[in-house]
Amino acid sequence: MAIVKRIIPALTLCATAGVLVIASAPAMGATKPIDEPAAVPVVKPVHEPYRPPMSCTYQVVKVRPSSFLNVRQGPGLRYRPIGELTTADGRFLGACGVTRGWVALTSSSGRLGWASAGYLYRIPTPHPSLIRRPALSCSYRVANLRKGGDLQVRKGPGLTYERIGTLDQADGRFAGACSAWRGWVAVTTSDGQPGWASSRYLKK
Fold it and tell me: pTM of this prediction?
């Protein structure tokens, strides 16, 4: 009892002097040390989308002469710009279809990309009779097709023209124009009809 009586006045004296510190257990869920790095969110890479064949002709519209139209890596604003187009570029090739409001095309520097369809005017496709058919002075064979696949031959140089026949690897070598027109080569179908085939699937 005498010891207790001595301790209590001593504690009172320390508290009065401001030197008494009462430690407490750390609270549950305390913050992490400041030198521990925070979790970094994982950003998924943006993959380059499928690019359809470019069989149609466009020109830039609704853009001031002093401005330009961005060409992006993919069909959307989340893709980074990789080039530009202006009204001075005149006509250029692009895909005939629109993907979520964007058209696959080629920038003024030659890079493949996508531009907003709202600033592009698609040039009407001419009738096949108005297209001058070149001489078939070169030799080709079908390439880049899956085994057993056929290459469609169309009435004109573009996907908007009707199909009139096919070519396949079994046809061997066949005659075609030496130069492509808007990505299409004048050829003859396996049954002898004159038409056009995509240069993407032909090899001299």
Answer: 0.46
